[in-house]
Each structure stands twice: as C-alpha cells, then as structure tokens.
Write a structure and sequence with these properties.
Elements lengths: L2 H5 L2 E6 L5 E7 L2 H12 L6 E7 L5 E2 L2
Antiparallel strand pairs: 1-2, 1-3, 3-4
InterPro entries: SPOR-like_dom, SPOR-like_sf
Organism: Streptomyces osmaniensis
Protein name: SPOR domain-containing protein
C-alpha cells in the first residue's frame, strides 16, 4: 500500500461506447469524486461515469 491509496481512495471511472474503462482521477472524498463524475456526465456524451472506492489492497471495490 502506498500513501496515495490512503489519502485518495475514491476513483472516477469512465466507460466509453465500446466498453473500455479508464480511470479519470483519484479523490480524497466520495463527495469530491461524485461532483467530478456528475460534472463530466452532464456534458451529454455517451460515456458513463461512476465512483468507486479503492480497497486497502489497492484494487477498486464496488460501492
């Protein structure tokens, strides 16, 4: 585990039209990550954006 996993445990993830997933960014709080995801989602493109919490082992965990 590294320091960024502890201090930035929330991911914003984007999925494009072809099902490819990309990490958009990491954030300290769920509220901050959700604000970014909502902002990106409101642009009206066909991509999906959502928030995930990184588990203590560094893997993303669904929330």
């Amino acid at each position: 585990m590294n320091d960024s996993t502890i201090t930035l445990p929330w991911l914003v993830v984007r999925q494009d039209d072809n099902g490819n997933r990309y990490r958009v960014g990491r954030y300290a709080t769920r509220a901050e990550a959700q604000k970014i995801a909502d902002s990106l989602d409101s642009r009206g493109h066909k991509q999906l954006y959502w928030v995930e919490r990184i588990a203590q082992n560094g893997d993303s965990a669904d929330n």
